[in-house]
């Protein structure tokens, strides 16, 4: 944070430029968000933001792999065992702008440099009331840094890996301009475990880069203008020939925040995304990889806005009135099948979707008691849906489907209360409704993953959530402890449902070979998740420690074509997860040890492919070489745990990133 006086009067009252949104409301604080501050972000042993977040119990990606080796389409984020789908069921926002991909709902994790963030705030639960649709399981809020000075870091790691990042903040144009950039590359590792490899298997190299420009300036006394422009590119290969993928994107946003007598926030943004993805099949014995599909052009874009007022209505009462909208468009152009190395079918799928909503939240504080009520109403729409397929050899149109437009209304709400007791104890509780619109990818695009194939479903309904939670907390001195019991019921969850096994030919997909599975995205009846979350934190002087644990019993309710799933556990949802860290930092010297442990989970909806649990230990340390220069070292997966990330129906298993050593220099 930097204090800047108005240019016209150096002696006038200073104006605080923060680069932040309006403060967290009293209603949101009832849900007790977890906060990762700038110090933790700078000293984490994790390489990327995705791995940093999964160190918090209950935060989960669809795959255990990180953003260097996983397919970008499997990088959705969720909470509270509501997974089973690669699209995010948790809303990720950066400076107020939703970050999930407009076409597929996954997250471009390499676009974010943890050292370029001032804070990460994770709110578990709460529905989709004030944050907006998509926040079924919670919200992850990223806040950019806004400070003067120069920072930089470069580090080299195992397998010819290299990371670099730089950032600078300077006064200009009456405000503060911050510039940051990052880049990473590596030769990667072999994802397939040694016992299952064949001649076709190879390393999975990666390279990515991102840049961000942000200008924050005072406007008219108690208002602040925040303008942002960012871009990223991400290239990965999945450990076989013909499995390269590339994601690109750019964002532009403009936000006006007022902190005067009538606090307000106005935001407008645009997002542009591009994606390419190649898939391969493998011959018997994994002797040779052959291209099976190629998404050669997947353009998508989103435009959105939001507005909020916080009028002062009475002493002890906080009122929020606002609204938001997001309109998305995206199409996948791909070669859907190959013969003798040449594409035989060209496919186009996609459409448009969006939502617009209004909300109101009122919170009253009366001594130790806080009461909060919020309500929201959204209008959603899906249109211009298309699935077209053409035979490249004859030029004949095989399918040309146009789906009718759909729309509807979705009301949601939240009610909560908190009471401060004596001795540092407090109790709180909340009940809420939330919802998520299916992604364009889920609605319109079929896909293949190895020998398995999944068809789209243009008739998918929005997901709806009913949830409640109760928390008992204690805080005194350096300690804070909490225990939260929760119960969530996700209605009409979108899941990849297994319908048949190969060999055979199926709608949209074509031929599925022996050992492969044919699936379709469908709305199940419900997923019920009940559990307990424990969190503790201790800070004293240069020491800090954090421990969290999540125990979640999740169960599928299914009927009709998906009746075989009834009573099973959702795919990719562990029953238990534990995360902990211990850190010490003083005068440029620091050390940080983190541990995350995940229980067993199932790869598939039928619970036939089990992924054993595992524990990963990471370590980071820093030593000052001068007042500004610091030597850093990190070890990811210190014990080289062989934790499985995926397994296919033909028994081929993949692992997470093995032990990786890093040594670097940091300009503080």
From TrEMBL:
Membrane topology: Multi-pass membrane protein
Subcellular location as annotated: Cell outer membrane
Keyword Mitochondrion: no
Superkingdom of source: Bacteria
Key words, A-Z: Cell outer membrane, Membrane, Receptor, TonB box, Transmembrane, Transmembrane beta strand, Transport
Domain TonB-dependent receptor-like beta-barrel: 234-638
TonB-dependent receptor plug domain residues: 35-139
Family that this chain belongs to: Belongs to the TonB-dependent receptor family.
Protein name: TonB-dependent receptor
Organism: Sphingomonas arvum
